[in-house]
Write a structure and sequence with these properties.
Blueprint (H helix, E strand, L loop, with lengths): L2 H39 L4 H6 L11 H8 L3 H32 L5 H10 L5 H14 L6 H26 L3 H8 L4 H12 L1 H16 L3 H6 L8 H6 L2 E2 L2 E2 L1 H31 L5
Antiparallel strand pairs: 1-2
Helix pairs in contact: 1-13, 3-13, 4-7, 4-10, 5-7, 7-10, 8-9, 10-13
Subcellular location: Cell membrane
InterPro entries: MetI-like, MetI-like_sf
Pfam families: BPD_transp_1
Length: 283
């Protein structure tokens, strides 16, 4: 190839990179703009928010955060949501881990049927589950109860968690487990001392996804929770109205606090999450 052709190809590649990165930058900006607007608005007055004047808070105020804690006691509902998200995620991870290992490593009659059954649950629309879930939860005596919501959220997050963990286990070599069993390790010793550390990246990835899904859940909370003390933070923010009308400053301040929890969780586990997402990409 001549020098002229090489230079022309380099210019085309340079323009292509500019277009690609420009498009990616635009997508990132569109994705982050609503979140940034909410967080900045949390420090504005109600008049400035409604007037749309200025991007930065002027004057700067934390009255919205004061209202969120004093008017609706947001911290109490955040604790409820933390309970649902934490225990629901733990339940889904435990059940999926125990189910994924034998279905990834051992052959037995009905294995493929079980895998298909668990995976098929991912395709079910949540709206279609509303009626059967309502009657099952009510018949079990767990309507409007915290334990009922924890069990329900564990079950809802189980299919996705199972699929990811099983796929990760299939991508890891079984030699370490076989060596442990040859040395006399039992099933559960191998499972918790060999398999569990190896699947830590995948566990972190699905834990973050499950936690965020439960943290942001509104549909089933609205369907199954009636008591004020059992409500999650999404229900409370949706109905955040003061005696004098909609308190927009308190609402965006509350939304900011609610968004910070999953963001902090991701920042804490980001190394494990990225390792889990990229596992298997390079062989």
């Amino acid at each position: 190839m001549s020098d002229i052709q090489t230079t022309a190809a380099g210019r085309r590649s340079g323009w292509a990179n500019v277009l690609i990165y420009g498009f990616l930058g635009l997508v990132v900006l569109l994705a982050l703009a609503p979140t940034a607007w909410v967080m900045l608005s949390a420090f504005k007055t109600g008049n400035q928010i409604f007037s749309g004047q200025g991007l930065l808070p002027a004057p700067f105020t934390v009255q919205g955060f004061v209202d969120a804690f004093t008017q609706i006691h947001l911290h109490e509902y955040m604790l409820n949501t933390l309970l649902y998200a934490g225990l629901g995620t733990l339940g889904a991870l435990t059940a999926a881990f125990l189910a994924a290992y034998p279905l990834a490593r051992f052959s037995f009659p009905g294995r493929n049927a079980l895998v298909a059954l668990f995976s098929l649950a991912l395709a079910l629309p949540l709206v279609g589950l509303a009626t059967p879930v309502f009657f099952v939860v009510r018949e079990l005596g767990m309507f409007d109860s915290r334990i009922g919501m924890v069990i329900l959220y564990s079950a809802l997050q189980f299919p996705f968690t199972f699929v990811v963990l099983r796929a990760f286990m299939l991508s890891t070599p079984p030699e370490l487990e076989e060596a442990a069993m040859i040395d006399g390790a039992g099933y559960f010793t191998t499972l918790f001392r060999v398999v569990l550390p190896l699947t830590r990246p995948a566990l972190a990835t699905v834990a973050v996804v499950a936690f965020v899904n439960i943290w942001n859940e509104f549909f089933f909370a609205n369907l199954l929770l009636v008591s004020e003390e059992n409500r999650n933070v999404q229900l409370v923010l949706a109905g955040f109205k003061s005696q004098f009308g909609f308190n927009v400053t308190g609402a965006v301040a509350g939304a900011t606090l609610v968004m910070l929890v999953p963001i902090c969780l991701f920042l804490i586990l980001q190394r494990q999450v990225i390792a889990g997402l990229t596992a298997g990409a390079v062989k």
